Amino acid sequence: MLSPGRFSLASGRSLMAGMAMAATLAAFPAQGQSLAPEHEIRRLMLATEEAVAAERWGEASEYLNRLQKMDSEKPADYFFYRGRAMLQAGHLNEARAALEAYVSRAGVDGQHYQQSLKLITDIEKQSRDSVRALANANGEVREPVAIIEPAGGQELQSLRQLYLASSDREALTIHLNALLETAGWRRDKTVVRLDRPADIRYRVSVVDGNLNIQEITRNTDDTTVQKSVSLPVFGVNPQPRWDCEPVVGACWIYDPRDGSRLFQLAQNRNQVNDIALTLGRLIRNLQQGSSGS
Questions:
Q1: Rounded Cα gap, residues 115 and 81, in angstroms
Q2: Over the range 10-41, which residues count as b (16 or more CB within 10 Å of their CB) and which as e?
Q3: Dihedral (C-alpha) 82, 86, 89, 93: value to the nearest 10 degrees?
Q4: Helices 92-106 and 113-133: crossing angle, nearest 10°?
Q5: Are 145 and 277 in contact (CB under 8 A)?
Q6: Over 50: is that where the pLDDT of 45 sits?
Q7: Of 82, 116, 146, 260, which shows the fewest CB atoms inside 10 Å?
Q8: Is the separation of the CB atoms in 236 and 213 below 8 Å?
Q9: Are 246 and 268 in contact (CB under 8 A)?
Q10: pLDDT of the residue at 84
Q11: Please, which residues have CB within 8 angstroms of residue 90's CB and are 6 or more apart in sequence?
Q12: Of residues 10 and 252, which shows the higher confidence score?
């Protein structure tokens, strides 16, 4: 049995060891945050590549989510790995959007170009099979959104797991920003430079129960203009209207308050439909109250 003196000494040593360990662990985030954005992106991309290669999908999703929250332009491979993670989670529309973004940015010389095309074809077949499975005896097709659109009510739990989010609201917000990242509008639609962000892009956040929409416009002289719009959600239609105009090569999502143009996006009807659906579900979530669950 230890004497009181020895017990105090041992306890003191344990406490000091614990404090030293805590200080050591606390130092790691600070070291990671000290990296310049371009180096931090590269570090997270290497970690993502390793996690995907080992099929550690939870770990890969964590790195991808951290990359998604960074404002700097991500390399083309980011969209390939996000597509792989989305596909693994069964989110077909989002997987296809991310893989198409990779193909558009990387081109035929991309390391994962051939694999991405094959995966897009596989997704197309899976989506077609899902729709066929929903057909009833009369040949009518029920609404397929609940199966191939992960923002549906029964899929929100898996969306929370994918993004490691603590609430449906957080998961929907992260998911909406991930979709917006692949749908930025560009003046030059023939050549996509990997080192240049879209000419018009958006980020959405929730502030005091309302939506804050940040629009970032890049001018021809490479200067940028940022403006923010607050969208109060109460009393508005939770399903925003949208359409595309091939003549001008753009799609728009309209403000549910007055019908004015809210988002100007690349001309991809599937992507814009997914964004409008997710935006509507986020609005509905905010209309339900402050819990965010």
A1: 12
A2: eeeeeeeeeeeeeeeeeeeeeeeeeeeeeebb
A3: 180
A4: 150
A5: yes
A6: yes
A7: 260
A8: no
A9: no
A10: 93
A11: 150, 158
A12: 252
